[in-house]
Amino acid sequence: MSTLNVTLVQADLAWHDPEANRRRLQEHFAALGSQTDLIVLPEMFTTGFTMEASSVAEAADGPSVAWLREQAARLGAVITGSIVTKEGDKYYNRLVWMRPDGTYESYDKRHLFRMAHEQDHYSAGSRRPIVELKGWKVLPLICYDLRFPVWSRNRIGGGEAYDVLLYVANWPDRRRHAWQTLLMARAIENLSYCIGVNRVGEDGIGINYAGDSAAIDFLGQPMTQPSEQEFVATVTLHKAALDGFRAKFPAHLDADDFRLLGREPGDTP
Description:
By secondary structure, the protein is an alpha/beta fold. The protein has one domain (3-253): Carbon-nitrogen hydrolase (Nitrilase/N-carbamoyl-D-aminoacid amidohydrolase, 4-Layer Sandwich), CATH 3.60.110. Helix content is 22%, strand content 28%. It is built from six helices and 14 strands. The chain has helices spanning 18-29, 53-56, 63-75, 149-152, 176-190, 239-248; strands at residues 3-10, 38-40, 58-59, 78-87, 90-98, 104-108, 131-133, 136-142, 164-168, 193-197, 200-202, 208-210, 214-216, 231-238. The strands form three sheets. Strands 1, 2, 3, 4, 5, 6 and 14 form a seven-stranded mixed beta sheet that branches. A five-stranded mixed beta sheet has the order 7-8-9-10-13, with helices on one face. Strands 11-12 form a two-stranded antiparallel sheet. Helix 1 (18-29) packs parallel to helix 3. The longest helix is centred in the C-terminal third of the chain and has 15 residues, at 176-190. The protein is globular and about 50 Å long.
């Protein structure tokens, strides 16, 4: 498709209360109808950003995944966000990319937030899935991944290229300048649209979040206005404009080649 409609859902999350969060988010969906292709929720949208993995984790196909499946089918749109997930004896901060037909992809957060000791409670992922939606390629990542440009690098012209870079987050207000700046930087350097969806409010351990969820175009220009309030906003991305800019300004042809070490065989990039 020549356009992609993306809905950003910036919400205040109830601490460790998945049912309340699912109910609140469903209320936010009420006005959408079938007017969007992709709905983006914050990181750990059922619980808030918590290190109490063992007490809040769901099974890999647990109630929140079932809820995503139901909502995606009802709205006729992909829905994505991350959930605290247990698989075997490990816990993951897992993004789920749920399609309307009930199939889904997942991504386990690669960069675990050391300053909150996330690495002591969760296992890191090792694969970087690029998913397709209506002819668009999307790379969905999680929060702290934003600080690591190599992991986000676009490889235009190859099998690992994408059109939209997406981050779901619980990014505190005291670091909001970094959030806003890095979203623009990732869009500019990767010649892609960049979507970042954060939460608002105060979590259960007293950390405040200012939101500032944003859609950024391939020039680094904001398509949304920053806000500290809950909101639902839909933006339209244009493939012809993106492809046209890449043709006129093919900076990717001068990019440095590299490979990532410490990955599982067969993973990309």
